[in-house]
């Protein structure tokens, strides 16, 4: 049976890129780019709370890194490296092989090498923690507090699919294999637009990744910036997997459904053409979904007028 060091050597030890000191020492080393600031984020994924026990380990390896790349993109930061902490109830070679392949495939694509970490045994389920390291030009980070009245609100990707997939897998919606097949990839293999986030540094004002629900996360920007966010319901990009569902369920999935891992940001209207050009260059679907105003809170405009967004909902890491 593999011990800790054998597990690391077999599944997670790869040659470090030039300029890095990776797995094998007490600390990893790399040199930040002169004139850039270091950006760092860490996420924790726990079996039974953030993912199902029977999830494809390849997809889990992908998602474990993707959720961190999403945070870097929301700050306008470029990935540089990542660290992995992994706690397992037992060593399962096939699971580890698939998990590491999913992780490394995305790490290679994002130019975000794994340069260290830790492993240990857990008495319950799998626990995964990835720390990602990136960098952004000094003074160009996209902070939540930088939105201004008059800014456009933009959103990448679509909304609602991950929430619907979760409801189907939990049995909260009637069994629908076709709808599950259409929505499940959004839940288990998100593709955050981290490259677009980096390209927006110095152009957009404020940004956040939509992990806990559009209203909740956009509300963080509104609060930090001391502004009000007005969303246009007709402009929100509903995922095609929501078609045919009751209107109230669609509304809930779109406004408060989590696990989206898309980028919501604000920018001056004069940058609309430049922003659309960047999105087209990166192949990222992009929608202009509202605007920032004087005031506070998040509102939704529909055929009946402007209304406060749902006060309840959004993911709570302690409440679920």
What do these coordinates show?
33% of the residues lie in helices and 26% in strands. With 320 residues, it is of the alpha+beta class.
**What does the oligomeric state look like here?**
single chain
pLDDT < 50 runs, ≥5 residues: none
The helix content, as a percent range, equals 25-40%
If you average the pLDDT, what whole number results?
92
The biggest sheet amounts to:
7 strands, mixed
Number of strands: 13
Total count of helical runs of at least 4 residues: 9
C-alpha geometry? globular
**N-to-C order of helices and strands:** HEEEHEHEEEHHHEHEHEHEEE
Strand content: 25-35%
Spatial strand order of the main sheet? 8-10-7-11-9-12-13
- What is the CA-CA span between the terminal residues? 36 Å
Compute the gyration radius: what is it?
Answer: 20 Å
| SS class | alpha+beta
In short:
The protein is α+β, with helices and mostly antiparallel strands. 33% of the residues lie in helices and 26% in strands. It is built from nine helices and 13 strands.
Primary descriptors:
PurM-like_N, 320 residues, transferase, PurM-like_N_sf, alpha+beta, Thiamine-monophosphate kinase, 33% helix, 4-stranded mixed β-sheet, globular, EC 2.7.4.16, single chain, 13 strands
């Amino acid at each position: 049976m593999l011990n800790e060091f054998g597990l690391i050597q077999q599944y997670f030890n790869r040659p470090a890129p030039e300029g890095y000191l990776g797995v094998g020492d007490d600390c990893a080393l790399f040199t930040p780019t002169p004139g850039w600031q270091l950006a760092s984020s860490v996420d924790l994924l726990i079996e039974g709370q953030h993912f199902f026990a029977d999830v494809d380990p390849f997809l889990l390896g992908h998602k474990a890194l993707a959720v961190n790349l999403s945070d870097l993109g929301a700050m306008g930061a470029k990935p540089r490296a990542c660290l992995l902490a992994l706690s397992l109830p037992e060593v399962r070679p096939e699971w580890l092989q698939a998990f590491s392949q999913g992780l490394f495939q995305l790490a290679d694509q994002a130019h975000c090498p794994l340069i260290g970490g830790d492993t240990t045994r857990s008495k319950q389920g799998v626990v995964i923690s990835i720390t990602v390291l990136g960098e952004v030009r000094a003074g160009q980070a996209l902070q939540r507090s930088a939105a201004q009245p008059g800014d456009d609100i933009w959103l990448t990707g679509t909304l609602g699919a991950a929430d619907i997939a979760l409801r189907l897998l939990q049995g909260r919606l009637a069994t629908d294999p076709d709808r599950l097949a259409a929505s499940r990839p959004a839940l288990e293999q998100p593709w955050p637009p981290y490259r677009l986030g980096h390209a927006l540094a110095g152009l957009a004002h404020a940004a956040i990744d939509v992990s806990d629900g559009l209203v909740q996360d956009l509300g963080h920007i509104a609060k930090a910036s001391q502004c009000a966010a007005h969303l246009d319901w007709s402009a929100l990009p509903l995922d095609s997997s929501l078609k045919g569902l009751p209107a109230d369920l669609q509304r809930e999935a779109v406004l408060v459904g989590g696990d989206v891992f898309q980028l919501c940001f604000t920018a001056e209207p004069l940058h609309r053409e430049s922003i659309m050009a960047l999105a087209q260059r990166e192949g990222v679907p992009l929608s202009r979904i509202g605007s920032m105003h004087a005031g506070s809170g998040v509102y939704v405009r529909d055929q009946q007028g402007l209304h406060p967004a749902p006060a309840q909902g959004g993911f709570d890491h302690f409440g679920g």
